[in-house]
Design goal:
This protein has about 250 residues and is an all-alpha fold. It is built from nine helices and no strands.
Length: about 250
């Protein structure tokens, strides 16, 4: 059993555990892309993108809906702003509690040449990157939500396909950025667990993926349940809907 204990205590094998955890998250996102391409109505991100596109087309074709636009986008802005603020506060708190002001070279990047002996420091760097990524993408979501509000408001009551397509693209880009920011924030839990025990990071990541999948998938809906859309109008909107592909959120 000595070799087994040595394997678990070996910093190199712990780095493999961290790499596998990262690959699990990346593989899950790739899985969502493939499933979304094969069955768009089974993945929440694709369905959300189509709902936003339909909302923009309906709201811009109906004059006098400016108040509804402001209220709806304000809710999205508040959600993205809350996540951005929370991520920055978490980043500041993590840097403070990790001993940023310590003079022992705890955060000296020049001392990280030997990664196998600086495992805890690199875990803290990874945690800081996770919080910063969440802050960055949520901030970008606020930016795109703001400009999408301008585009939708000035296009209400007009029949401008180009302006409508750009508004849909901006709104879906904002949703995509917000989705990435939230997922990055959720990944902080496996990283924080690894600070206590590196080998707990992998099962925690698997459990996180399981939870995310429960929210990312949509229960099966019979194909005839979607036949409430005018086929002629649906064909006319196909080009605009295609522009939303890859901008899910």
């Amino acid at each position: 059993m000595d070799w087994w204990t040595e394997f678990f205590n070996n910093p190199a094998s712990q780095w493999v555990c961290i790499a596998i955890s990262l690959l699990i998250m990346v593989a899950y996102e790739i899985f969502l892309v493939f499933v979304g391409n094969a069955a768009p109505y089974r993945i929440a991100q694709r369905t959300h993108a189509r709902m936003r596109a339909t909302w923009v087309r309906k709201i811009m074709a109906r004059p006098g809906t400016e108040v509804v636009i402001v209220q709806t986008l304000r809710n999205a802005l508040m959600a993205a702003s809350f996540m951005a603020s929370t991520s920055m506060l978490a980043l500041i708190g993590m840097l403070t509690l990790s001993g940023l002001g310590d003079t022992s070279g705890h955060w000296n990047l020049a001392s990280l040449s030997d990664l196998t002996t600086r495992l805890i420091e690199m875990k803290l760097v990874l945690l800081a990157l996770v919080f910063f990524a969440s802050f960055f993408f949520n901030t970008m979501a606020v930016r795109f939500y703001t400009h999408a509000g301008y585009m939708i408001s000035i296009g209400v009551g007009t029949d401008d396909p180009w302006r409508r397509s750009v508004a849909i693209a901006y709104l879906n880009r904002a949703g995509f950025q917000y989705s990435i920011g939230v997922r990055a924030f959720f990944f902080c839990f496996p990283v924080m667990v690894s600070l206590f025990n590196t080998w707990l990071m992998m099962p925690t990541t698997v459990f996180l993926v399981f939870l995310l999948y429960q929210f990312d998938r949509i229960p099966f809906v019979r194909p005839d349940a979607r036949i409430d859309v005018n086929p002629v109008a649906h064909r006319g909107e196909k080009q605009e809907a295609d522009s939303t592909e890859g901008l899910d959120g």
